[in-house]
Amino acid sequence: MAFDYDLDFETIDFRKQPEQYRVGRGEQGVLLVEPYKSEILQHWRFKTPDIATVSSEKIYQMFLDYKDKKDFVGMDMARKFLQMGYTRARRYTNYKGGRKYDEDGKVKERQIDPVKAKSAAIFMDKWKLARTDEDYLRMKKEHQKNYG
Fold it and tell me: Fewer CB in a 10 Å sphere around the end CB: N or C, the chain?
């Protein structure tokens, strides 16, 4: 089932109401689902490889902590933040300032930043670990079967 953007994200506590959560595609809802957004976002950084390492390790540890608590929504949100670390770092790798389009809406020429590319690779490694975790995959399937 698709991610439901029509929910009242201001009032829903998805830890208390996990049945309201839909996985969606990719990073959908990563900046909406509370309390996870507030718990994870404060650790999400990718400016340099050193910062990306600390950030990705912290978020992956949060993924494991949610796993220990059998909190699928937390696991999926941590996975989304790891994915977003990769995709945003790649955007900054390819386009100075992270802006893909110029003022006229045309795609700018790529300018590869090797520092940001390394940050992206660091997040990619942790994202791969999360998205292939057997318990995560089992819980995801179960959640989707039960709630859509």
Answer: N
